[in-house]
TrEMBL record:
CDD domains: NAT_SF (cd04301)
GO molecular function (one): acyltransferase activity, transferring groups other than amino-acyl groups
Entry protein name: Ribosomal protein S18 acetylase RimI
InterPro entries in UniProt: Acyl_CoA_acyltransferase, Bact_Acetyltransf, GNAT_dom
Species of origin: Cryobacterium psychrotolerans
Key words, A-Z: Acyltransferase, Ribonucleoprotein, Ribosomal protein, Transferase
């Protein structure tokens, strides 16, 4: 089922919920990234962890993993949306946007912006009062991209690898 259609200079792209058959293409998009390539490439051949993760995401109604498909039918972009209920902000629902990836050959043509704009609208549709995302501090071009879309760098994030 098509969630959205984007008519862009590079063609007409569709956005849909990811399926199990998309996992390989999604992993390839994740690995096509200078910060994640070494991590993803070490397990790319070991498909089972990705398949288990997909099944967990797909079974959870708070999660939405989507892919953008090119006019040729190729998966060329992805992102994951997570609805997070909380007590802060008077019980506000948050929409977290994660793992946004657009194929390197298609960056700069408006697909990423169209996807994020759709994600914001989807957050509103679900009743979210806040949309949030994180971006590695070294990704300066991504920061400019998100700022152009109205996001503000308002917090400092911390991670602990387990």
């Amino acid at each position: 089922m098509t969630l959205a259609a984007f008519d862009l200079p590079a063609g007409a792209f569709t956005l849909r919920r990811a399926t199990a058959s998309d996992v390989g293409a999604i992993v390839s998009l994740l690995a096509d990234d200078e910060l994640r390539a070494s991590v993803e490439s070490t397990v790319r051949e070991a498909r089972a962890p990705y398949d288990r993760a997909f099944e967990a995401i797909n079974a959870d109604p708070a999660q939405l993993l989507v892919v953008a498909v090119s006019p040729a039918g190729e998966v060329v972009a992805t992102m994951q949306l997570t609805s997070i209920p909380g007590l802060a902000r008077a019980g506000a629902l948050r929409m977290q946007i994660e793992a946004v990836r657009v194929h390197s050959n298609l960056r700069g043509n408006g697909l990423g912006g169209a996807m994020i704009t759709w994600a914001i609208a989807e957050g509103r549709r679900r009743g979210a009062r806040l949309v949030q995302l994180t971006s590695d501090h070294s990704r300066q071009s991504a920061h400019r991209f998100y700022e152009r879309l109205g996001f503000e760098a308002s917090h400092v994030g911390f991670k602990l690898t387990l």
